[in-house]
């Protein structure tokens, strides 16, 4: 289940889409994402059809989880791991920006640090296992050779809060990568006073969806194919210079994916 930017005639200009996670086929597209409309739509299916749904993959949208429990009696709600990683990396990047702005002063030495934090943002968001401590390359901002791990080590010396936040983010990435539920839950549930407010807020969100995220470690279902479909929908909308009518837009999307649910 997901939503995407739709036509102006759609409710809040957003449409709701859901797919078959195994076949990667679009099941339907609705002109609204309001819960009472979605609830009425799904309740039109027979109880047997709704009971046959075993897993439902969503992002961290609280209303959708309540909807799923209302209409699917035997569901297992899964929070996609992609959204978990996205949330953690966004918090780390916000912490980096806060630290970077602290060095945005008129002092030449501060400006040098500012430029480094601004230039090496991609490196900070990389998985630590992808970094090297032996591959030295000339780095203009350091005026000499430096390995990617050496750059990270330098940045870690700048601020205690950022170092703690970076370590928590990296440990979460490793736990997700290896599907280590116990390590993930320990990181989320433990109190860490040194990390940034942004990361603390993200950990509270992860704690709220602890059970649903744990399901993503047990099952291989994900919304990866749906994110791909949404990207193709954006492309369809762009090359068509937009749509005014929702039905026409919906039919064009379904035709683009060779779907037979096109309205006559």
Automatic annotation (TrEMBL):
<dbReference type="Pfam" id="PF01610">
    <property type="entry name" value="DDE_Tnp_ISL3"/>
</dbReference>
<protein>
    <recommendedName>
        <fullName>Transposase IS204/IS1001/IS1096/IS1165 DDE domain-containing protein</fullName>
    </recommendedName>
</protein>
<feature type="domain" description="Transposase IS204/IS1001/IS1096/IS1165 DDE">
    <location>
        <begin position="1"/>
        <end position="253"/>
    </location>
</feature>
<dbReference type="InterPro" id="IPR047951">
    <property type="entry name" value="Transpos_ISL3"/>
</dbReference>
<dbReference type="InterPro" id="IPR002560">
    <property type="entry name" value="Transposase_DDE"/>
</dbReference>
